[in-house]
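JOB MANIFEST
job_type = single_chain_structure
chain_count = 1
residues = 236
[input]
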Amino acid sequence: MKEADLYAPVKAFLQTRGYEVKGEVKDCDLVAVKADCATVIVELKLTFSLALVLQGIDRQALSDDVYIAIHQPDSKLKRGNWRSKEADCKKLCRRLGLGLMLVQPDAGNRRVQILLDPAPYAPRKSKQRQTKLLTEFHSRAGDPNVGGVNKTKIVTAYRQNALRCAQLLAQHTSMSVKALRAQSGIEKTAAILQKNYYHWFERVDRGVYCLTEKGREELSLNCAALPDTSKVKYII
């Protein structure tokens, strides 16, 4: 299969819609012209790639109606790979104002499938996600993470709060939720202890908790995530 094999199906597809089509016009793989319509430009590649996207962006200097066309995956493995990234590819094209076609030269009348038409993109901000982002940012103490790391546990504000509770419990045999809340200043102390997401805490009485062995181990490994651990003495 060659890129040139995609040309005839796309040409036929556009001709049935009333366009006059010609190939390789001023470096464009395919140009389609129709009276009173914007010029359509299509760039052809066998697979979706950054090079293809960059070609499409370059052609937007010539027309608002630019499509990038790729060969429809023809094996189980390729179809699986495409399905896993199709949504992201469409999102990228939508943001860039590019159209996207899938081409299957041997599929009879359905040889070309338009997944996305070119259109101006106006990004919509998510107020909910913005709020969560800033809440997490302002809730963290210090900067406990290094940006760009992989396969490393991220210290979230929730984890810092759980570590703060563990830090206080490590200084006592046990503590009440009320006392922990007062000393830590964490409003959701009760929820952290009751949910016990990390399995660091153990209920020893009504409203009273102690630190588990796992909690002590995690506290010793993650004490750097808290900014005020240098003078803390733990009960072992």
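[summary]
The two ends are 69 Å apart (CA to CA).
Residues 229-236 have pLDDT under 50 and may be disordered.
exit_status = 0
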